[in-house]
Amino acid sequence: MVDSAAHQPDSSPDNSALDPLANVQNQDLAEVLAEVENVSPSPALELPLLAAGGLIKNFGGIRAVDHASIEVAPGSITGLIGPNGAGKTTLFNLLSSFIRPDQGRVLFDGEPIQHLQPYQIAQRGMVRTFQVARVLSRLSVLENMLLAAQQQTGEKFWSAWFLPKQIAKEEKELRERAMAILQSVGLAHMAHEYAGALSGGQRKLLEMARALMTRPKLILLDEPAAGVNPTLINQICDHIVNWNKEGMTFLIIEHNMDVIMSLCDRVWVLAEGRNLAVGTPGEIQTNPQVLEAYLGQ
Ligand code: ATP
Hints:
This protein has 297 residues and is of the alpha/beta class. The chain contains 12 helices and 11 strands. It folds into 2 domains: 225 residues, Rossmann fold (3-Layer(aba) Sandwich), CATH 3.40.50; 61 residues, no CATH class. Adenosine-5'-triphosphate binds next to β3 and α3.
């Protein structure tokens, strides 16, 4: 069991009767939550939006993720940190099904998802961004946004013939939504420029803006502040806080500790593919095991 800096579990029998997880009917969820509890014995107050238990991923002889577990509470901004090579990106790839686990389970909204394709997971409401923003450079900023919208009527062959008015209406609404989001992140003036003309930081903003087009419940952000100038980092943080206030949940990998400390409700620490600690940012900052893992690099 790893060190949990968060509040300790209360062993009183009365409390367990009040535990909302005590009567979880879903067998998959109950088993994954038991794995999470091994790592983080602090009592959860609600069912997690995302939960993963006992994840293992080997690359040849390298075990990148080693029995790792994590949970993300709905409405939270949850952090995932760890020294270089700790397995954070591999864990993200497992959570979002970009790679398959050798062992372990991932549940989103109570349902197992590790067998699904990333686009199917996006349709259920979980999207991700990448360490190096993946935008389509030869398309305009606006076109990048419009491509993210899912399941439009016009995508179905016969609908294009029979429902032209509905398609035109949907397209207009999509454009308006795309422009409103671009406006909110300060990219509206670049809407008709090639995405390739954006700076690294602006590409990260575009990736996040594009993720919002799908109206997700959860966004996984892989190093949103990496390679971004300090002014834009502050703007990105402000956007994350605002979107969170509007109800969006985030899981964020980040090396910039100021960003993690200012944004996150709860932080999970990985080292050598394993869970090392979990707690509030303040608790993690003073956790001796975490300090040792970083200083020992
Ligand atoms: P960083 O903070 O430096 O981005 P990380 O915590 O995200 O690191 P990962 O990128 O997940 O760590 O890598 C964990 C380990 O798995 C490392 O030893 C890495 O070299 C190895 N690894 C990751 N992906 C692969 C791969 N596709 N093939 C082989 N080894 C890999």
